[in-house]
Amino acid sequence: MHTPRYNNLAIALHWILAVALVYQIALGLWMVDIPKSPPGLRAEWFNWHKSIGMSLGLAVVLRGVWRLKSGAPTFPLGLPVWQRSLANINHGVLYACMVVMPVSGFLGSTYSPYPIKFFGVVLPKLWAASPPLKELMSTLHFGASRLFMLAITLHILAALWHLAKGDDVFGRMMPGKSA
Ligand code: HEM
Ligand code: HEM
Predict the structure, then answer these.
(1) How would you label 92-106 residue by residue, b for 16+ Cβ within 10 Å and e otherwise?
(2) Which residue minimizes the CA distance to atom 28 of ligand 1?
(3) How far apart are CA 3 and CA 24, in angstroms?
(4) Cβ of 147 less than 6 Å from ligand 1
(5) 150-173: pLDDT as tens digits
C-alpha cells in the first residue's frame, strides 16, 4: 500500500521556502554587524533583507492557504504517538515563526524613521515613527529568530534521523509521484 505523502505543490513550497528562509536568517545575522559608516552599505543590505522578507511573508500566506485547505497527509502507519505529537508541535512552532518573523520585521520597520524600500520602490509611510514600538518589534523579531533557528535545527535532525532509519517519513517531502 502507498504511504500518504505531500503533493508536488506542497513539496515545491516547502523547499523554496526552506532555502530562502535559511538564506534570510543568515543574511539577518550577518547584516546587523555591518558598520554604520561609511553610510550606504548597511542600508542597502537592510533594504534587501526587508524586500526578501516581505516576499517570504507572501509565500507563507500561499503556503498557509494551501495547508488550511488541504491539511497534511496522515502519518505513516506505525509511527509512534510521541513522534506524531513532537512533529505536530514542532511544525506548529515553525509555522508560527514563519508568520511572526515577516510581520514583526515589517511592523518594526514601519515604526523606524527610515522608509521601507521594496526592491527599490519606496513604500508610503503608514504612521509616525515610534522608538518604543520599534524596540518592541525588534525584540520580538530577535527572540522569534532564535526560536526559529532552534526549531529548524530540531526539524532537520528529525528528518535526517528518519532518513537514516529508512522509514517512510523523509520521502513524503521529496519530489516524486503525487499521491
Ligand atoms: C521570514 C522573514 C524574516 C526572517 C527569517 C528574518 C530574520 C532576521 C534575523 C535572523 C535577523 C538578525 C537578528 C539579530 O541577530 O539581531 C534580522 C534582523 C532584522 N530584520 Fe529580519 N527577518 C525576516 C523578515 C524581515 C522583514 C519583512 C523586515 C522588514 C520589512 C525585517 C527587518 C529586519 C531588521 C530591520 C533587522 C535588524 C535588527 C532590527 O532592527 O530589528 N526582517 N532578521
Ligand atoms: C527553514 C527550513 C525549514 C522549514 C521552515 C520547514 C518547515 C516544515 C513544516 C512546517 C513542515 C510540516 C508541513 C505540513 O504539515 O504542513 C515540514 C515537513 C517536512 N520537512 Fe521541513 N522545513 C525546513 C527544512 C527542512 C529540511 C532541510 C529538511 C530535510 C533535511 C526537511 C524535511 C521535512 C520533511 C521530511 C517533512 C515531512 C514530515 C512529515 O512527513 O510529516 N525540512 N517542514
Answers:
(1) ebbeebbebbbbbbb
(2) 105
(3) 33
(4) no
(5) 999 999 999 999 999 988 889 999
Rounded to the nearest angstrom, the distance between the alpha carbon of 142 and the centre of ligand 2 is 22
Ranges of each domain in the chain: 8-173
Residue 87 pLDDT grade (very low, low, confident, very high; cuts 50, 70, 90): very high
Whether 5 lines ligand 1, by a CB cut-off of 6 Å, is no
Pocket test for ligand 2, best of 67, 84, 173 (most atoms within 8 A of CB): 173
> DSSP secondary-structure letter at 179?
-
Q: How far is the CA of 1 from the centre of ligand 2 (A)?
A: 23
Scan for cell 509512534, then name that residue.
80
pLDDT tens profile 34-86: 999 988 999 999 999 999 999 999 999 999 999 999 999 988 888 899 999 99
Q: How many angstroms separate the CA atoms of 122 and 130, rounded?
A: 19
Query: What is the C-alpha to C-alpha distance for residues 174 and 179, in angstroms, rounded to an integer?
Result: 12
